[in-house]
Amino acid sequence: MARVTLIALVEDDLALRDALADLLEVSDYPCRTFEGSESFLAAHAPGRFDCLITDLNLIGASGLQLLERLKTLEPALPVIVISAQTDPSVRRRVLQAGALAYLTKPLNDQVLLRHLAAALGRGAPAA
Length: 127
Description:
alpha/beta; 5 strands
């Protein structure tokens, strides 16, 4: 029996976390949600999750700090970072730190799903 894909979603805004979780679930991407980096790291084990979607600005450790930590714990885990920040230098820093994608809010659902499919080897990312 094949292992089910599991997405980790770290977002401190409850309404957005619930909306994104609903989007993932109806798109056949089971997910587990976390309100912050610390709760995600407490549940993390190499190989448990197939992709991480995280907000950049979180209470406690930021999404960038989480990304940097994961690059030592599980370097192959694809990470998609979402943020309201449109500053090109922030985007550059996140991508240089190893994020697969940096998507700005408000999120386009289809763009997020295309990047997620690419992260999981199921298609090409959006242009």
